[in-house]
Amino acid sequence: MSKVLPPPGLPRRLATQSALLGIGGGTFLTGSVVFFTLYVGLSPIQVGLGFSLAGLVGLVGSLPLGHLADRIGGRRAWVLGALGGAATFAAYPFTDGFWMFLVLITIEATADTFANAGRMVYMAAAVRREERVRTMAFARAYLNVGFTVGSGLGAAALALDSRAGLLVLVLANAAGLALNALFVARMPAQPSLRTTRERQPSPWGVLRDHPYTALASLFGVLWLNATLFGEVVPLWAITMTDAPKPLLGVLFAINTVMAVALQVRATRGADSLTGSTRLLRWAALASVAACPVVALSGATHGWATIALLAFAIVLLTATELWMSGAQWYLQTEIPPAEQRGAYLGASKSVGGVTKMLGPASLTFLAIHTGGWGWWLIAGIFVVAWAAARPIVAWVERTPRNGLTEPVPSI
């Protein structure tokens, strides 16, 4: 049962919270675009602009909101963010026009960014170091279980083909977030952190930690695999191979099953800089290998094409699982304890640049070159593989102001 259930106590409560959050989020995400177009009456372009604005809020707001989570405490920030999200989703059915939609989606993105910052700050402070990465792995696995259940509920609501069904999508997520806030508020208080400096350091000073920003950039490059999985490979499969369109559902199912079944196991070794560096390099190599596999699928037929695309998804999912474990350790152990939120925010902001540029550039390289661009994409991940060890070593040997405890040595 230890492979299925997290350890009792706080780790199990955090996993349960993740599952509840995933159910609400999965229910809404299944039909979010349908809700905004058919229920609210927005055009697809207006919805796309709103989602882009939400992404920009996350990119710009991660650092200051992470710093605020440091100041007021992770649990409090998490609760406030969840309540803000619940209130926003409850207001979505009353949206009257495009500008009100932009205001609400900005508030929702801000609340979500704040809640995520609070969650990381709380988990890093409240969970013992030796259990931290494993606990985060269980939380991610249970989140995926919740999303799977929520996606089924969302599909059922869409099947009603009515305004009432669309309303269920939004109100289920609002209720889930409200329940989530109550659940988090009842969790044990995190230990207080005493800064070693007389006054609270400026959050913008994090950006002057050049080794850490280099590490954040490395995270951003490696997370391009998510763009490959979610956007580029499906588009390639539809336009450049003879794979049947229903195969896309199977490919996404492979990712979900692997994430649920293997996330905890994939974090083994992510309890030191040596182990985390090794996982980063494995993650990079998995994406390197996936690129020529996808390219080859454009020259095959029938079951061979299906097998190659499935193998590529396995490799890209392996990147996701190894990356997650390494990133959880590095993002919680490297920053000074009293600045974890600010460091996490800086990492999201720096890495968000590649997330913003990735879809267009990777789609061009993969598809508009006819396929040879996959080798250039593989080259990007080769560079990440080569850079991982020196970047982590640079991070390790660089002192940080306010550091309350040393980073475990390589």
UniProtKB/TrEMBL annotation:
Q: Where in the cell is it found?
A: Cell membrane
Membrane topology value: Multi-pass membrane protein
Alphabetical list of InterPro entries matching this protein: MFS, MFS_trans_sf, MFS_Transporters
| Keywords carried by this UniProt record | Cell membrane, Membrane, Transmembrane, Transmembrane helix, Transport
* Coiled coil (residue ranges): none
Predominantly, its location class is membrane
Q: What Pfam family does this protein match (any one)? A: MFS_1
Spell out where the chain crosses the membrane: 20-39, 45-65, 77-94, 100-121, 141-160, 166-185, 206-226, 246-267, 279-300, 306-330, 372-392
Q: Where is the signal peptide?
A: none
PANTHER family in alphabetical order: MULTIDRUG RESISTANCE PROTEIN MDTH, RESISTANCE PROTEIN MDTM, PUTATIVE-RELATED-RELATED
Protein name (record): MFS transporter
Organism of origin: Paractinoplanes lichenicola
